[in-house]
Design goal:
The chain is mainly α. The chain is about 70% helix and about 0% strand.
Length: about 230
């Protein structure tokens, strides 16, 4: 009886929804699990085996040119780049009266920022103090706000533009930008690599989770699609 029910009901349902389940697993569950593992170790005050070696490797390869490049990506990775673009996209959506997309955008990028602030206070991880940084920070370290903000921007844009040919451009440029922003924070010695990984994971899971709740999938199927709740 049980095997019959599996064959007749569950297997056909899995075949129909296999792509959505794969996206849910890869885009939400895996990043969320990664963040959970990192968070548990931070709570336990354990050292990640890769944090200090990567930081010292970065330190050993500094140069005036790299200093300038990494300072640039660190600056545009938050209030001097990501935040203005976040606001510009919001204004464009408001002017086009895309109220459902406005709701998604606000929850995606605004929620990621709020999640980061809450997590920093909850985990209260002290920033690396291995050398004097050329761009010192005084707030808590885990997870990286720059990593979360840049990832939220790139992922949310990808969700909205997925039905268009722009998705591949956004995917390519967004991926490079997110990596460089995260790399800059480690290079400058103001974040552990685990902070950046946690930021990427948390932000990806959050934005795709919001999309699944509002649109019923990880990305819009049609450019004019509205969330089911609006």
């Amino acid at each position: 009886m049980l095997l019959t029910a599996v064959r007749m009901r569950i297997l056909p349902w899995l075949r129909v929804h296999r792509l959505r389940l794969l996206v849910l697993f890869v885009g939400v569950l895996i990043p969320l699990s990664l963040f959970g593992v990192l968070a548990l170790d931070v709570i336990s005050q354990r050292d990640f085996f890769f944090d200090r070696p990567i930081l010292f490797f970065m330190r050993s390869h500094t140069s005036p040119l790299l200093d300038a490049v990494m300072l640039f990506f660190s600056l545009v990775g938050a209030r001097f780049g990501v935040l203005p673009v976040d606001m510009l996209v919001l204004i464009m959506l408001l002017r086009r009266r895309r109220w459902g997309d406005v709701l998604f955008w606000g929850l995606a990028v605004g929620g990621a920022a709020l999640l980061n602030l809450t997590a920093k206070q909850a985990f209260a991880r002290i920033r690396p103090e291995l050398w004097l940084s050329i761009a010192p920070e005084t707030t808590y370290s885990f997870p990286s706000g720059h990593a979360m903000a840049s990832t939220a921007l790139a992922t949310a844009l990808l969700v909205l533009l997925w039905p268009t040919s722009w998705r591949w451009i956004v995917l390519g440029i967004g991926a490079v930008f997110v990596v460089l922003v995260g790399l800059s924070r480690v290079y400058l010695g103001v974040h552990y690599p685990s902070d950046v990984l946690a930021g990427w994971a948390a932000s990806t899971a959050w934005v795709l989770g919001v999309s699944i709740v509002l649109y019923g999938r990880a990305a819009k199927a049609r450019i004019n699609e509205e969330p089911a709740s609006t």
